[in-house]
């Protein structure tokens, strides 16, 4: 079964809003077939460097599922909970 992955690097700059954001994004992503594979935790650098940001990885059924939730009005509302409270890099990529 094809899968796709949403990878996020996060630096939280203000804790306010994050607990509610995490809860709501977990529920919303699950409605679109998304599930956590990685949610923070220690990073063991085997080669290269690591900048210390928290890593989060979601698995979705497809790239279309990621696009559907990411561009949805529901996610636009949830996203407001973390605006101005962190710095994120977010990537989506298909699995093999």
TrEMBL record:
Q: Which Pfam families match?
A: DUF1330
Where on the tree of life does the source sit, at the highest rank?
Answer: Bacteria
- Ranges where the DUF1330 domain occurs: 4-96
Family annotation (InterPro entries): Dimeric_a/b-barrel (IPR011008), DUF1330 (IPR010753)
Give TM regions.
none
User: Which protein, by its recorded name, is this?
Assistant: DUF1330 domain-containing protein
- What is the native source organism of this protein? Microvirga tunisiensis
